[in-house]
């Protein structure tokens, strides 16, 4: 397509599209970047050349861009059937095979999966199922849900309410009623001086327990939603013993523990799932993104035996389950997921993530050691967060107006690497495709080191 055509498309885009998570005036004044192609860890733009995508899109193109095998799968699925509904006890072959595969990858800790199209709808389904479950078992007051400060669970009504970032609430009359907000477990930022990480975990649990008691205890509190590692809220890794302690606390008050693995699922941490990395068993698990590496919109909610056994026992008394989506269990999406998981297995990408992730973290730590503004490099596998600070000792943070994380991601972008600035946590995130090579990891880190120098010169 010619350059003139792109200029025209940018104008049409301005007049036709209401962009998600964007500023209307920015689109109006500055136009849009049109992505035109992608291969491996690289993505092409219409006006600014090719970038090494250190974010795998929105934390999702885990097998990289431009996989022909996925295209073939899509074609075959479309030609074979194209679409099938899954309501009223109907099914399709890819959905069945995928469900079996998913229960196998999660090592038998879940009883069933329910398919949708996005991480948000997956969390909304979880939210509704929690109500359904407690209604069925005669606990109509048990409806309050705990979610954490800075959490990101999506943008539909329940998911946005669970999200703990105020900009997703203000102007939308959110959160909906019944959400209890718990502190974020970020030891580096919120740990007290001379408090050990374990003591910090205990303090978090004590604060959570107070929230539960203040809300009326087990009779009123239904569930606790947590990303095993925060994504958009700052790539915050759990402090020592966190999920073991949280599991115990939830059990004490008969609270369902929901792991939102929309980012961390399907290999990102160097295990298939982050609850395996952190050695705990959630009652429900939401997942999307990496299930198809973003090639098709698909989500899977995993339901554990605690809930499932009650549903089997009680649900028929209430009639059919009146929830579901036209595209739930889409045969093309499920076929794409099967091919995607097959590629991950065949190319040993989960162990590659572990190995190359360790390399990436080691290199980041070594190369950023001397920097004044990177206070913490955190994460695991091919997921990392760089915490910006004004000063390391004493530990001082930038003001919101300094926009340090956005400045750093912009400086890195000038070096042809895409990363994401997360302003709520003053953190820059890295989440590259699993197929990224070591030289590409080095290229990404070179771009960061250079960007950090530029931001230091600007802000210090
Ligand atoms: C942890 C987490 N949960 C849920 C979502 C929402 O997913 P979607 O954008 O597919 O609705 C996201 C998206 O980034 C996420 O990171």
Describe the model.
By secondary structure, this protein is an alpha/beta fold. The protein folds into two domains: 33-63 and 348-459, Aspartate Aminotransferase, domain 1 (Alpha-Beta Complex), CATH 3.90.1150; 71-346, Type I PLP-dependent aspartate aminotransferase-like (Major domain) (Aspartate Aminotransferase, domain 2, 3-Layer(aba) Sandwich), CATH 3.40.640. The chain has helices at residues 3-16, 24-30, 56-59, 68-80, 93-105, 119-136, 157-162, 187-190, 197-214, 242-252, 274-277, 305-314, 331-346, 349-368, 404-414, 438-459; strands at 35-39, 42-45, 50-53, 112-116, 144-148, 179-182, 221-226, 256-260, 284-287, 299-303, 374-380, 383-388, 417-418, 420-422, 427-430. The strands form three sheets. Strands 4-10-9-8-7-5-6 form a seven-stranded mixed β-sheet, with helices on both faces. Strands 1-2-3-13 form a four-stranded mixed β-sheet. The mean pLDDT is 97.
The computed structural class is alpha/beta
> Would you tell me which CATH topology of the largest domain applies?
Aspartate Aminotransferase, domain 2
CATH superfamily of the largest domain: Type I PLP-dependent aspartate aminotransferase-like (Major domain)
The CATH architecture assignment of the largest domain turns out to be 3-Layer(aba) Sandwich
């Amino acid at each position: 397509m010619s350059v003139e055509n792109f200029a025209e498309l940018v104008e049409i885009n301005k007049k036709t599209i209401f962009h998600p998570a964007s500023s209307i005036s920015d689109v109006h004044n500055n136009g849009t970047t049109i992505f035109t192609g992608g291969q491996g860890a690289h993505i092409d733009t219409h006006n600014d050349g090719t970038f090494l995508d250190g974010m795998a899109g929105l934390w999702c193109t885990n097998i990289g861009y431009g996989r022909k095998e996925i295209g073939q799968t899509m074609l075959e699925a479309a030609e074979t059937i194209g679409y099938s509904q899954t309501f009223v006890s109907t099914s399709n072959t890819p959905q069945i095979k995928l469900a079996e595969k998913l229960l196998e990858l999660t090592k038998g800790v879940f009883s069933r999966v329910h398919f949708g199209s996005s991480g948000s709808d997956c969390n909304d389904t979880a939210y509704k199922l929690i109500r359904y479950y407690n209604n069925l078992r005669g606990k109509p007051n048990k409806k309050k849900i705990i979610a954490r400060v800075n959490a990101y669970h999506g943008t539909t009504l329940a998911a946005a309410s669970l999200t703990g970032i105020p900009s997703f609430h203000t102007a939308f009359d959110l959160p909906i009623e019944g959400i209890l907000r718990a502190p974020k477990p970020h030891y580096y930022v919120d740990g007290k001086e001379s408090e050990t990480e374990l003591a910090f975990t205990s303090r978090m649990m004590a604060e959570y327990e107070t929230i539960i008691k203040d809300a009326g205890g087990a009779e009123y509190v239904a569930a606790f939603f947590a990303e095993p590692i925060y994504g958009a809220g700052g790539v915050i890794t759990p402090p020592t013993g966190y999920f073991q302690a949280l599991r115990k606390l939830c059990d004490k008050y008969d609270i369902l523990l929901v792991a939102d693995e929309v980012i961390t699922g399907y290999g990102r941490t160097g295990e298939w799932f982050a609850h395996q990395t952190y050695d705990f068993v959630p009652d429900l698990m939401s997942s999307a993104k990496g299930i198809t590496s973003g090639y098709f919109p698909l989500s899977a909610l995993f339901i554990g035996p605690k809930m499932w056994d009650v549903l089997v026992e009680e649900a028929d008394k209430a009639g059919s389950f009146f929830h579901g989506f036209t595209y739930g269990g889409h045969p093309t999406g499920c076929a794409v997921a099967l091919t995607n998981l097959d590629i991950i297995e065949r190319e040993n990408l989960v162990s590659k993530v572990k190995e190359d992730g360790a390399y990436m973290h080691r290199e980041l730590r070594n190369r950023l050691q001397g920097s004044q503004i990177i206070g913490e490099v955190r994460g695991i596998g091919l997921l990392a967060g760089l915490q910006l600070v004004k000063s390391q000792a004493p530990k001082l943070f930038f003001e919101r107006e300094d926009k340090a994380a956005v400045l750093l991601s912009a400086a890195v972008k000038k070096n042809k690497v895409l990363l994401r600035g997360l302003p709520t946590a003053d953190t820059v995130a890295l989440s590259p495709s699993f197929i990224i090579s070591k030289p590409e990891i080095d290229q990404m880190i070179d771009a960061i080191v250079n960007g950090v120098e530029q931001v230091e010169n600007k802000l210090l």
